[in-house]
């Protein structure tokens, strides 16, 4: 909800203001090394990175479950270390593991959460009805949750996060492991809560998810933010175009051969070449101009191309360009996932 006053009565600009955050665990592992995140009220903000990049550690620090070893975090104007209670009252946090009670129905789960958050009794019934409607669970409102699909449990979990009407919600990989249909329904729900004015901070491994939903996003690698911007801005800044080539012979050997041929090709300049399920992908600023030379070089090497696609970059390409990946296995089509794509 934009324009929420901070605790000292002044208008604060930012929903999330994390400055140069470092987090080192007790065993000496430094999971976050200087993350700065500034999220405006009402934004839908994405936080992307492969497994182990430090997303969960960062989100736990933002929601007061971990203290930064260095740096500072203010959420809705409150400091996470000196005012943790005020921060908690002003946020919703959906962890990776669902926190609903499976023995209880959606209505009972929401009643319990209302009690925990001290929602006035007179408001509970309406609030619960509104949330059940929001996540499309009215029809099963009084059914025990243990029978629900993964997607339904996630939707209920997401509803419990909103009972106290927090201006900011933190969602830690909410769609991981869900089938595409369940994922799409959750996306709709997240869009709806954002349209109502809630600031959303979403961590995800799914680039398509971030591309679809987020106003802006930060890419995280090895505990460091390597880029921040709108999806289109990041794509244009990376300045590459892409050719996806499907090879007639898509064995590992043939793909490696094609990779070597293309890496030697001067015409594609400073290209990155990655193998995909069906062939190879070339990312380069010069790729459109060099397309005919790409085909000629492959032909000369006796490599048959079954089909190809010259396209603009996706967020997947942005990430690979920024991390200077050159030989990663890339799905190139479908829902791209950093988790499967970037070999650290
Ligand atoms: N409690 C802990 N103690 C020590 N190291 C930890 C702890 N939790 C996480 N780590 C390490 O910190 C790094 C970042 O982990 P984190 O879970 O924050 O990454 P992530 O991006 O959320 O990954 P995932 O997508 O797998 O959840 C990893 O190297 C991880 O092994």
Automatic annotation (TrEMBL):
<dbReference type="Pfam" id="PF13732">
    <property type="entry name" value="DrrA1-3_C"/>
</dbReference>
<dbReference type="InterPro" id="IPR003439">
    <property type="entry name" value="ABC_transporter-like_ATP-bd"/>
</dbReference>
<dbReference type="InterPro" id="IPR027417">
    <property type="entry name" value="P-loop_NTPase"/>
</dbReference>
<dbReference type="InterPro" id="IPR005894">
    <property type="entry name" value="DrrA"/>
</dbReference>
<dbReference type="InterPro" id="IPR025302">
    <property type="entry name" value="DrrA1/2-like_C"/>
</dbReference>
<dbReference type="GO" id="GO:0005524">
    <property type="term" value="F:ATP binding"/>
</dbReference>
<dbReference type="GO" id="GO:1900753">
    <property type="term" value="P:doxorubicin transport"/>
</dbReference>
<protein>
    <submittedName>
        <fullName>ABC-2 type transport system ATP-binding protein</fullName>
    </submittedName>
</protein>
<comment type="similarity">
    <text>Belongs to the ABC transporter superfamily. Drug exporter-1 (DrugE1) (TC 3.A.1.105) family.</text>
</comment>
<keyword id="KW-0547">Nucleotide-binding</keyword>
<dbReference type="Pfam" id="PF00005">
    <property type="entry name" value="ABC_tran"/>
</dbReference>
<keyword id="KW-0813">Transport</keyword>
<keyword id="KW-0067">ATP-binding</keyword>
<dbReference type="GO" id="GO:0016887">
    <property type="term" value="F:ATP hydrolysis activity"/>
</dbReference>
<feature type="domain" description="ABC transporter">
    <location>
        <begin position="16"/>
        <end position="247"/>
    </location>
</feature>
<dbReference type="InterPro" id="IPR003593">
    <property type="entry name" value="AAA+_ATPase"/>
</dbReference>
<dbReference type="GO" id="GO:0043215">
    <property type="term" value="P:daunorubicin transport"/>
</dbReference>
């Amino acid at each position: 909800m934009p324009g929420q006053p901070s605790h000292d009565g002044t208008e604060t600009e930012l929903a999330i203001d994390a400055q140069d955050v470092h987090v080192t665990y007790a065993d000496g592992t430094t999971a976050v090394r200087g993350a700065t995140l500034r999220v405006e009220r009402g934004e839908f903000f994405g936080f992307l990175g492969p497994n182990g990049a430090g997303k969960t550690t960062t989100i736990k620090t933002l929601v007061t479950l971990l203290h930064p070893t260095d740096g500072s975090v203010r959420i809705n104007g409150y400091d996470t270390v000196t005012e943790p209670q005020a921060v908690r009252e002003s946020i919703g946090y959906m962890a990776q593991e669902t926190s609903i009670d499976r023995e209880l129905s959606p209505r009972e789960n929401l009643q319990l959460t209302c009690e925990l958050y001290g929602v006035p009794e007179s408001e509970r019934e309406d609030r619960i009805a509104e949330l059940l409607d929001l996540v499309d669970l009215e029809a099963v409102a009084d059914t025990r949750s243990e029978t629900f699909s993964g997607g339904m449990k996630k939707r209920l979990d997401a509803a419990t996060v909103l009972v106290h009407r927090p201006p900011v919600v933190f969602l830690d990989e909410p769609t991981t492991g869900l089938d595409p249909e369940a994922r799409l329904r959750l996306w709709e729900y997240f869009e709806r809560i954002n349209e109502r004015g809630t600031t959303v901070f979403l961590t995800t491994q799914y680039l398509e998810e971030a591309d679809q939903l987020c106003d802006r996003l930060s890419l995280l690698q090895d505990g460091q933010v390597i880029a921040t911007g709108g999806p289109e801005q990041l794509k244009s800044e990376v300045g590459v175009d892409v050719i996806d080539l499907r090879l007639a012979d898509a064995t590992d050997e043939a793909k490696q051969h094609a990779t070597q041929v293309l890496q030697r090709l001067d015409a594609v300049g400073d290209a990155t070449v990655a193998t995909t399920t069906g062939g190879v992908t070339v990312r380069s600023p010069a790729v459109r101009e060099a397309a005919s030379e790409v085909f000629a070089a492959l032909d000369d090497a006796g490599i048959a191309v079954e089909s190809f696609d010259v396209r603009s970059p996706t967020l997947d390409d942005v990430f690979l360009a920024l991390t200077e990946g050159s030989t990663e296995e890339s799905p190139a089509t479908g829902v791209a996932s950093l988790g499967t794509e970037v070999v650290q």
